[in-house]
Request: fold
Amino acid sequence: MGYSKEIWNQANEELRKRRERRSMERERRRSVCFAKVPRLADIEYAMIQTGIQLSRIVLEGKDVVAEVNQLSQKHQALIKERTALLAQLGYPPDYLTPKPYCPICEDTGYTDTARCACLDKLLKEIAAARLNSESPLQLCSFETFKLDYYPDRQDPSLGINIREKMTEIYRSLKSYAEHFSLSSKSLFLWGPPGLGKTHLALAIAGVVLDKGYSVIYMPAQNMVNRLEKDRFSSGTEGEAETAFLECDLLIIDDLGTEFLNSFVQAALYNVINSRILSGKPTIISTNLEFATLRERYPDRLFSRLTGCFADLYFVGEDIRRKKKKED
Reply:
């Protein structure tokens, strides 16, 4: 199980572009500054020469201590002069050396001992973006969620005010998105169709993506289709499963609409259970009642859905029907 060659190639290409952008920016800054203050170019050349002289001293076996001290003093004087000249131009001391995107590996993707965390993050983001390419992530937001579609009256069967209940859920999910972290809890959004579960799940995805986390939103049927393709097609083996397991937030929409067989049941269980064990937050939405879920899924999967997720029950009247009447 792992990322495909295409994802690795895309990640390596992005790292190359980061290094190239840094190099180009470095040359741009040097060109501008040297044109304004030619002495800066002289200092740059002199600093390079001190490095060459130091290497020669070591190779020739001369009085290293005395020579190094002399060169060090010269080098520090050059740095001090450069800093003063850059300050006159309004720039910080390190302006001529733009910072890399990742200061740990300097955009190589690797440290001395291991793969850098920035490369892991990049791989997750690319894999998520590929899976989200056909998802409506930009269609819904908290700002476009209208609470006035929910009736301001009591639900006699539940004994609660419908609009007040949905206002509470809306605020809770908005806060969840705004304060999202890798330690956020998993959520189970359930209730009859047409009550805004997908809208709010997509709204969460948008906010969390903007915070820099990797998010995958996937209808349940699409998700199992990708897992089946991974399992039975060459060239992509393990790619989707790795992405589902590694992304910072996985959103499975419309659980219960997927065609079930033994492979699908095992695949769903593996993804959901693995994310629970690794502490990664997952959001699942469904139109099914708990009794139907119990009948549809194996006990071990049902117990995780009901025992490891904070559940939010949506109430009201089908909003899609209301909107259709308005149109």
In short: Residues 132-326 form a domain with the Rossmann fold fold (CATH 3.40.50.300).
